[in-house]
Amino acid sequence: MERAFQVDLRGVVDLLSHHLYTSPQVYLRELLQNAVDAITARRQSDPDAPAVVAIDPPETTGDGTLRVRDGGIGLSEPEVHELLATIGRSSKRDELGMARHEFLGQFGIGLLSCFLVADEVRVLTRSARGGPTVEWTGRSDGRYRVTPAAHERPEPGTTVTLRPRPGMEQWLTGAMVADLAVRYADALPVEISIGGRRVNSGALPWQHRHPSPAARAAALREYAERVFGFAPFDVIDLAVPEAGLTGLAFVLPMAANPAARSGHRVYLRRMLLSDSVDKLLPEWAFFVRCVVDTGELRPTAGREALYEDDLLADTREALGAQVRDWLVRLAVTAPDRLQRFLSVHHLGVKALALHDVEMLRVVDRWWPMETAAGPMTLAEFRRRHPVVRYTATADEFRELAAVAGAQNFGLVNGGYAYDIEIMRRLPLLDPAITVRRLEPAELTTYFEPPDPALEARLRPFLRLAADTLHTLGCDVAPRSFDPPSLPALYVLSRAAAQAEEMRSARSAANELWAGVLGAVDATGAGERPQLILNLRNPVVRRVAEAADPSLAALGVQALYGQALLSGHHPLRPQDSALLNHSFLGLLEWAMAAGGTR
Ligand SMILES: Nc1ncnc2c1ncn2[C@@H]1O[C@H](COP(=O)(O)OP(=O)(O)OP(=O)(O)O)[C@@H](O)[C@H]1O
């Protein structure tokens, strides 16, 4: 024998309140939604039927109840049994069970949300299609009663009456109800009145009429301040017809944390869904907050978020394209404003440039990168240098910028987020653009070697310097270069850097691994780091000309240590030991020299 499911309503209400809805306040949204849907249904056959929803809070009813009245389609007695007493049954779906466009509701569970705040819900209703007024009383324990009404309603329509459950009265007060009605229903195309006073504007902010574009801009600015808490840098009109979507994007005037979720305000057929919808826009567009209305995107059953489907994915892309077009337009029509925008939101734009050629062009032309010759755009950089050379890290840039700048060697700091990827994508703008990571040894080709006479004079010192650093695996090279204030440069070719990593790994490894790494290292033999001594530096010259070899050796050690430190190179134990040794040795020399004075 087949039987029907039994439903324990208390379990269902518990499920709704703890898992589906985030707050009991949704009961009012559901009541307003039902009232508006009923009005829509009635006006399909009777366009002159009243489009008013009247709310009477306990302060006006005087009996502690809240009433919501509409002049909508109403329900006949069979409909009451069918629709109000069956969970999941809705009159707002078509024969195929699809949500009908003209209605807000679709799931057939909304009325249950009244049990979040009341133990008893009374519905007094008269159908516009005829029949007497019926009264349905539902209780949160799952029982309901349908009786003929004591008094006939003078007009078709429905009145829902809630008596607050003890402890839930605050959700039904006049002030709370007014607040919720404006929040959820301000834009609904019906009049919503509380205690006889209209409380909603009936229009979305971008649909209001204004005497001039300036007046519209001022009103939208005021709206953004009120709703989002900031005066927007700019306002972008949005439209995605496939999603029945219109709206606005407000550009933040201050930097936003890309990781922080910026919620968008979303209306569904003019009823507020939520003001913290995320994933409406692509992630890179974290610099805008939107307010939109959509007829086609689907809500989740809790009606507080959008359902993730293909249409939402397409909409997200379309909205992203509109924000991006605004940026491109700004670059053409108001470059100074674009620059101001970039100074605040460059991270978002750079992220976008990683997969969008137009944005790449914007960054190329307008975003000043850090270069050895000061900040300049990549486009400007290419006018001065044939090759876009960049450092792999900010440390490398810091070490080499002064030297590169002094040789007029073009160098871009690749240490900031996205910059290397952006530079690598430059050939997409023009295949003739050459982009290369700096090989530090390249820079040294610009340095002058000493002339033969000087070289001969320095030979004993250079031999001593080479011996001093030999055990550390470092070669010494004398050169003259600018700036003279820089005494020495520790230069690693990329192969040398790898070999060095291997060496430091070996010094930290146990015997077995040291053997393995040693075998690997043999392949990188010959690639050793170099300490380039700057012969234009007065201290270097004095060290080179020191009469006492032990003082000269200490000087070389100190120059080596200083070059490692200033280039942020990792110090191995033997490097630290050498630094200590040279420091103490030089101190001893200084003290001795002081003592003889
Ligand atoms: N004020 C009203 N006037 C006329 N019919 C109503 C009214 N309120 C509810 N109903 C009827 O009761 C049905 C169930 O309402 P309920 O709010 O539970 O679900 P829904 O509005 O269909 O969908 P959703 O769960 O998405 O809100 C509705 O489909 C509608 O037919």
TrEMBL record:
InterPro entries per UniProt: HATPase_C_sf, Hsp90_fam, Hsp90_N, Ribosomal_Su5_D2-typ_SF
Keywords: ATP-binding, Chaperone, Nucleotide-binding
Molecular function via GO: ATP binding; ATP hydrolysis activity; ATP-dependent protein folding chaperone; unfolded protein binding
Keyword Ribonucleoprotein in record: no
Residues binding ATP: E30, N34, D70, T158
Family, as annotated: Belongs to the heat shock protein 90 family.
PANTHER family attached to this UniProt entry: HEAT SHOCK PROTEIN 90 FAMILY MEMBER
Protein name: Molecular chaperone HtpG
Organism: Actinoallomurus iriomotensis
